Amino acid sequence: MEEHVDHGHSVAAWTAVTICIVAAAVMSIAVVFPNLWLFVGGAVLAVVGVIAGKVLSMAGYGAASRDTDTAPSVR
Fold first, then answer.
1. Which DSSP string corresponds to 6-66?
2. How many beta carbons lie within 10 A of that of residue 10, not counting itself?
3. Cα–Cα distance between 43 and 50 in angstroms, integer?
4. 42 near 21, Cβ under 8 Å?
5. From CA 61, how far away is CA 71, in angstroms rounded?
6. Are 62 and 56 in contact (CB under 8 A)?
7. Is the Cα dihedral 36, 38, 44, 49 positive or negative?
8. Cα distance between residue 20 and residue 73, in whole Å
9. How far apart are alpha carbons 21 and 66 in whole angstroms?
10. 60 to each of 4, 14, 21, 34, 45, how far by Cα in Å?
11. 26 in Cβ contact with 42 (< 8 Å)
12. Residue-wise pLDDT tens for the chain (75 aa)?
């Protein structure tokens, strides 16, 4: 059975998701109260969230890499 060690619970993931949720809320408010600039600001904030998550992941705050082979070797 495959073991799931990590599901992305990291500073990078939480930061990206939090910023994107705030961006979605801002864009939703811009739809309810028609305001183009508020919507554009929310869209820019969403892009910032994605970039922040990637930068934090590259800085070592992301989930551990799954490149390691944990299966027992047969010799």
1. -SS-SHHHHHHHHHHHHHHHHHHHHHHTT-HHHHHHHHHHHHHHHHHHHHHIIIIISPPPS
2. 18
3. 11
4. no
5. 26
6. yes
7. negative
8. 42
9. 27
10. 20, 14, 23, 40, 23
11. yes
12. 566 666 668 888 899 999 999 999 999 999 999 999 999 999 999 999 999 999 998 988 887 765 555 555 565
CA distances from 37 to 43, 45, 51, 69 (A): 10, 12, 21, 49
Residue count (the chain): 75
Reading the block at residue 6, the tokens are 């990590």
- pTM given for the model: 0.75
Quote the CA–CA distance of 23 and 25 in Å, as a whole number.
5
End-to-end CA distance of the chain: 22
